[in-house]
Amino acid sequence: MAASKSRDDLTALIKAVYPEATVIFTTEARDVPKLARDAVKGGSTLIVAGGGDGTINAVASALVGTETVLGVLPVGTLNHFAKDLGIPAALESAVESLATGRVMAVDVGDVNGHIFVNNSGLGLYPAIVRLREKRQKRGKSKWVATAFAAARALLRYRRLTVRVIANGKQLVRRTSIVFVSNNEYAIEGLNIGKRARLDAGVLCLYIPRETDRLKLIWLTLGALMGRLQQNKDYDKILSEDLWVRSRRQTVHVSIDGEVIRLAPPLHYRMRPKALRVLVPRSEH
Questions:
Q1: Which residue range is the domain that position 61 belongs to?
Q2: CA quadruple 96, 11, 46, 32: dihedral positive or negative?
Q3: Hey, which of 10, 41, 111, 185 has its CA 20 to 30 A from 201?
Q4: What are the Cα distances from residue 130, in Å, to 23, 134, 240?
Q5: pTM for the predicted model, two decimal places
Q6: Is the same domain home to 48 and 128?
Q7: What tens digit of pLDDT does each residue of 47-101 get?
Q8: Are residues 124 and 246 located together in one domain of the fold?
């Protein structure tokens, strides 16, 4: 669990709901996967993760395909997954909802064996994430770092030529962004940037057509914020399974805000209802 609130206060909140719970804090992201795996091996039936979407991903990846249930506390910056699960933003309410919540099976995406609960991207998206992290390590706020990273990445990044195969069709593009989400984001209206369902069993691919740099950066920032808007500058494809091919030996790929290198081809597939999560009982 990543520490972003007072540890004593958060521990007290959790113990009030689960008196026998073991509460562990860590500031080392690399420790999270092992802590989650050890808890599963130890027979834990519920693991509550508190942190950003990267932390949630690390815990969820250990729980996929098991009977262990994931509880989510929204103590990160954007908390996309928590919001789409209907978890209250207030920490006290979020903890209380664990005691009264119900278990729901939700989908996860998979790219070459790596799980994502929100989205995955190539091109400008991971480039901005990498540059943003560097600026944050120098003490800049997330939003200032994102703005700087977006401007710098736009100036330096070269388009990526990809061949996408989905639904028996092939799409070849020279593009700066490839964005794949676990289920479909709303792209218009009051619910823009949210997913109405996390159990519809589909991946949603967004890929821009040729466009100018200003529009590309706008699309990329929208993806980072989870607020892709409907327009004529990109294609959207719904599929349970798709391939992204490139002539490059390796590509940077973002997975729920964390960046890794993978060797193409990239095989994206839906893993329907593979993760058991706690959601507020009022959510249907």
A1: 7-100
A2: positive
A3: 41
A4: 31, 7, 28
A5: 0.85
A6: no
A7: 999 988 889 999 999 999 999 999 999 988 788 899 999 999 999 999 999 889 9
A8: yes
